[in-house]
């Protein structure tokens, strides 16, 4: 009889966690002929003037800027194509195959998920999109020509936590609200929080990181090596909001890689002890 694997989830923010910078900055905003600093400054202005959610403000501005430019193609396929220009942190592109292999050696069935305020369509166009079971990210509603009309899903600081519960209960979509509000005993949930790692890079991830940590899981704050953001992330550790902090280096043997593997080791050992206890109690 084949060994039963323990289900485990690693959840990632995208911008600043797996990829450098914001995904819209790689090629889309430059194609519009706008400096990225000017774009985000305008987002901040819209947010304040209209009391808008900041994610809604940037999505609205992307639509408006593309309409006014005229020469930049703006549909589902072109948005997806911008994902090809993403620059990843060291080790990311071969990390998933390596960590999946390591998990299998520990009898762990590992699922990878994205929960991001970034543009879903662009993330879907990246070379690593194939490794994620589900990508939860801000996305658009399209017309019959596949041109964005309106935000369909918006993920901000606190709404990210909703999607952790979707993973927790095994709901692989963003629209089914009946299942997410249905009571499910902890022992019957698809991925208990204690078998979950959340990896994020800063304040936008704090509610999600704190939730996972408080529920018995592991939260890891990452920062670009040699960046000023190290201090911000280390502060989260001091405040008890994350379990660990590490440079965003996913290479084999790097500090982040070691933390993830050690967490998988602990889960594997706990599962083995539980199986043994169940066996002798029969």
Q: Any overview of this molecule?
A:
The chain has a seven-stranded mixed beta sheet, sandwiched between helices. The protein is globular. The protein has helices at 28-31, 36-50, 54-69, 76-81, 92-105, 120-124, 160-169, 177-180, 206-214, 229-238, 255-280; strands at 6-12, 108-119, 134-142, 148-153, 196-200, 218-223, 244-247. α2 crosses α3. The mean pLDDT is 91. The chain is an alpha/beta fold and 282 residues long. The chain has a single domain (6-28, 84-280), classed as HAD superfamily/HAD-like (Rossmann fold).
Give the low-pLDDT segments: none
CATH topology: Rossmann fold
**What CATH architecture label applies?**
3-Layer(aba) Sandwich
Highest-level CATH class: Alpha Beta
Helix content: 40-55%
Measure the end-to-end span: 19 Å
> For the record, what is the CATH homologous superfamily label?
HAD superfamily/HAD-like
Integer tally of domains: 1
- Cα-atom Rg, whole angstroms? 20 Å
Strand order, largest beta sheet: 4-3-2-1-5-6-7
Counting H and I runs of at least 4 residues, what is the number of helices?
11
- The succession of helices and strands, N to C, reads EHHHHHEHEEHHEHEHEH
Structural class of the secondary elements?
alpha/beta
Topology:
Layout: E1 6-12, H1 28-31, H2 36-50, H3 54-69, H4 76-81, H5 92-105, E2 108-119, H6 120-124, E3 134-142, E4 148-153, H7 160-169, H8 177-180, E5 196-200, H9 206-214, E6 218-223, H10 229-238, E7 244-247, H11 255-280
Parallel strand pairs: 1-2, 1-5, 2-3, 5-6, 6-7
Antiparallel strand pairs: 3-4
